[in-house]
Amino acid sequence: MRRVRSVRPTHPRALTVSAAWGISAAPARAEPLGAPGAWTREASAVESAYGSGATLHLSFEEFARTFGSRAQEAERRREGGVPLREIRRVLTTPSGKAAVRRTHAAYRKFRAFDRPNVLHWYPTLFRSPSFAREFPEAVQTGPFWPGAFPERSSTSVPPRSLHGLRTIVWYASPGSSSRLASLLAAGLAGAHESVRIDVRAPRVFELPVRERVTWRILPALPPAPWRRRFASADLRIVTGSRTLIEAIELGRPFLYFNGVLGRGRGTRRHRPEKLDGLLRAWAFRGASRRWRHDLASVGRLQRVEPILRRLAADPHWDRGFPRRVVPVGFAPPYADGQQFLRSLMDRFDRGATAMEVAAAARSGRLLDSPGARRRGV
Description:
Blueprint: E1 14-19, H1 21-24, H2 40-50, E2 55-60, H3 69-79, H4 84-90, H5 94-110, E3 118-123, H6 129-134, E4 138-141, E5 167-171, H7 177-188, E6 195-200, E7 213-217, H8 223-232, E8 235-238, H9 242-250, E9 254-256, E10 260-261, E11 268-269, H10 273-284, H11 289-299, H12 304-313, H13 337-349, H14 354-363, H15 372-375
Parallel strand pairs: 1-2, 2-3, 3-4, 5-6, 5-8, 6-7, 8-9
Antiparallel strand pairs: 10-11
């Protein structure tokens, strides 16, 4: 066996990892909304011990939330129930433009984009050039895959279910899950075979009694049993970020529901950017139009009954489901979160300061060797 010499940095280095560092770990400011974050004391102690140049703060930002200031202002109003035509009109007025400027300034401040040794990491499925132009400190990459399903590979295609649609696993965390439950039951009531829906939910809600539909409330499960249940189901209904990424990684059929607000014509989706990013990536890669339409509809709480009715009646119901999602708009190592992190830490280990590492990641030159510019390479 060949002996490999361990290479260690000359000086000690530190890495902190937090969610939204500018909110959770930034120092206090003597101004309104300037209270320290929950992890400020710990982050400050690490930086005091190692020095700012040897301390890299890695800030995980919300998955796929890459809105520019105007889009953020529009989205805030849309979720509040303002009609789209009114949003478009208001944002062209002097007061609307002033609101966008205030949003830009507040976002820069409260994300702490002014801190050179903080790397703001935005995993997503579809890179946003406009977000990158407005906030060049924000580093976009492909997802950081959880590794929940290590058998997944880019070339393997899971065998198609031979028994039709019989089992569904649903991570039902949105507050409006009861509305989806009634539509699921109605759509599956006429199925040829009984369908069992395993529900994992943080709160109790009413489950409708219908023919051919059996509900089972899952107890709290450790990760391994939950993943086995998740992977073995014919269909998954996922939400938020984590279960969406796990479903994409698994590469088997799923639907997505992150909740809705309002009713009737005022029904609107809650935080739809994650699903929208997936659908854009699917469309760019030429994925099945039927599945794209189905996911978009269920996410809006539309056409749920006919979609489930069709899936339950079709022996080839899972045909055309995209087995692999390749993030769009990235070059190595940014296309994959794990590769990005390895490249980041390799550069840090090889002697670059925290500021140099963050600057290289932001500029897209992460794979350049440290000091290349100084040497004229």
